[in-house]
Amino acid sequence: MNYQDLANLVFPDAKDISFYEEKYPRRNLTEGAIVTRFAPSPTGFVHIGGLYQALVARKAAKQTDGVFFLRIEDTDQKREVENAITGIVNSLQDFDMSPDEGQINATEELGNYGPYKQSLRKEIYQAYAKYLLAQGKAYLCFCSAEELEAIRAKQEAAKIRTGYYGVWANCRNLTVEEMIKKVQNGENYIVRFKSTGREDRKIKHHDIIKGNVDFPENDQDIVIIKSDGLPTYHFAHAVDDHLMGTTHVVRSDEWLSSVPLHLQLFQELGFRAPKYAHIAPIMKNDNGNKRKLSKRKDPEAAVDYYKKEGIPSDAVKEYLLNIASSSFENWRRQNPNLPIEDFDLQLNKMSVSGALFDMVKLLDVSKSTISRYTAEKVYEEAYNWANEYDAELKELLSDKEYALKVFGIERKNAKPRKDIAKWSDVKENISYMYDIDITDYPYQVINEPEDIKKILQLYIEKYFNEADDKQTWFDKIKTLSGELGYASEVKAFKENPGMYKAHVGDVSTVLRVALTGRTNTPDMYEIMQVMGKDKVINRLKSAIAKLS
RNA sequence: GGCCCCGUGGUCAAGCGGUUAAGACAUCGCCCUUUCACGGCGGAGACAUGGGUUCGAUUCCCGUCGGGGUCACCA
C-alpha cells in the first residue's frame, strides 16, 4: 500500500495531469505579452474595487497585446448569488471592458482554456490533487470541525500561532494504511497540502506593486479539496492560472499574505509561478477610520451606482486611472482627446497604499469628460440614460433637433462649458429651455415690479430682434439700460455708484430671470437663439403678467 | 496577539541624500468690458514622532505611535 493506491482509491476516475497539460498548451504570444484575469466570485454585484482591479489587469494585458480573461470563482456554493454572473458580465460590458476569454453570459464562454467557471473544473482540480496525493505531497485529513476548533482553542490558550501545521496537524502523520482504512470505513475527509515550509525560514518575494517583501515560509497544511469535492481558492488559483497561462496576477492586496502559500503550491505542483501585482483597495473614511468601501454600507461601492447616477463609464475609468497612476493626470492634460486606451499604465508605479474614494474629484473628472463630448454624444448618452431611469427627461429629449441645439450651447468653443457631471443633472440643467411653467422669479438687485416691468416691456417692444448678432444684441441691452437710467457699463457704475440705480449686469439679470426663472444660466444670447423668437417673447410677457 | 504592508497639505499624489517640497481636486481672493460654469493669476495649507548614519535627511537604519491587511472545508 502506498500513496499511489491511496490516490487511486480517493480519485478513481481522475485523469493523469498530462492530459490537461496537453489539452491546454502554452499560449502562443509575442515576447512580453501579458496574460491577466479578473476572477470574481459570483456573490453579488461588482464592487468598484473589483472594477479597479479589472481595469488595471486589462490595461496591463492590452498594452502588451496580451490576453485578459474572466474567470468565475464559484467554489463556495453557499455564498453564490443568483444572476451574479450575468451582473458581472454586464458590468464589464457597461464599462467597455469585456474580456477576451471567459464567461460572456451565464452559460456561454469564449476561449480555449476553459471552462472558465471553476465549478465546472472539478475534475481538473481532482486530477491535480490526485497527482499531489500520489506523491505524498498531500494527505487526507479526517478531523471534524469540532476537533479543529479544539486545536485552535488550545493554541489560543497557549498563545501560539493558530492553524493546522507541524505537530498540530493530527492527520499529517497518518500512515497510508490508516488513511485507506478510514476511507473504507466511510469516514469523511478532505485533502490537505503537506507543507514543506518552515516558519523560521524566510522567503523573498518581489511584488510588482509592493516591491520586495519577505515573509516566513508557509507551514500550514491548508485544505486543497473541500468535502464537497471542490477546491479552495488557493488550490484553484495555482491550477487555473497555470493551465490558463496567466503571467501576471493582479489582485487586491488582501492576498499579499497568502503569497508564501501560493508560491509553495506552484513549486510543489511543478508550475512556474506568475508574477504578482497586489493593488491597494479603495478606501472610505468612516469616522476617522479608513476602511474598505463596503458593499453593505456604501452605495458608491456598487458599480451599478454610477450607471444609475448617470456618471459616464469613461469618467469612472478616468477617475480610477487617476488613483492608479499620478502620471495619468499629466498625460490627460497633454492629450485631452486621446482615448484612455492610449495611456500607458506602469504597474510598478502604482500606489502602495489605499486611496480614499473621493466623489467630489470623480464628479470633477466627469465634468471634464463630458465637456469633451460633442453635443451629439451628450444627447445620445443622456437619452440612453433617461430611457432607463427618467421618463420625464426622455420626454424632454424626444425632440432631438432641439435637444442638440440645447446641448450645443457653449460647447463649440475652445473652452466648452463644464456644467454636467452626470446625466441625472441634465433635467435640472436644461428644463427651462422647455415649456415649463416658471413659478419662481428670483430677481436680484433690481426687484421692484415697476422697474422690472419697464425693462421687460421696453426690451420686447423696442430692442429684441432675433436676427441680431451677439454684439448688436448686447449693445442694445446697454442702450436700454442707459435709456432707463442704469449704467450701461459696469465700470462706470463702479466708479460712480451713486449716479445710477444699477448697471447693465443687473438689467441682464432681470432678463435672465424673466426668461429662465434662474439667476445662473449659460450664455443668454445663445439661449435666446435656441429658444427662438416666440418662446422668448412669451416667456417675457408671462413674466410681466406674473409681477405682483 | 503573531506575521506583513503603509504613513508628504482636507483628498489624490510627485519627489527617494542637498528642491523656494511639483501638480490635481477642494477651499479663499482677484481678473475674464452681463450671471453661473470654464479659463487665468494669486493666497492659505504637508514630509506622524523620537533616536541614529551623514557635512547634510522628507528621502537610509532602528524604535514609538497611527492606519490597513492576514491568520477558515470564504474568496
Task: Quickly list its features.
alpha/beta; Rossmann fold; 3-stranded antiparallel β-sheet; RNA-binding
Cα end-to-end separation:
103 Å
Ranges where pLDDT stays below 50 over 5 or more residues in a row are none
Strand content: 5-15%
Please provide the count of β strands. Answer: 13
Average per-residue pLDDT, rounded, comes to: 93
The CATH homologous superfamily of the largest domain corresponds to: HUPs
> What is the number of helices?
23
Strand order of the largest sheet: 1-2-3-4
Helix content: 40-55%
Characterization of the model:
- This protein has 548 residues and is α/β, with parallel strands linked by helices.
- It has four domains: 3-15 and 122-279, HUPs (Rossmann fold), CATH 3.40.50.620; 289-371, Glutamyl-tRNA Synthetase, domain 2; 375-424, no CATH class; 449-545, Arc Repressor Mutant, subunit A (Orthogonal Bundle), CATH 1.10.10.
- Helices cover 45% and strands 10% of the residues.
- The structure holds one RNA strand of 75 nucleotides.
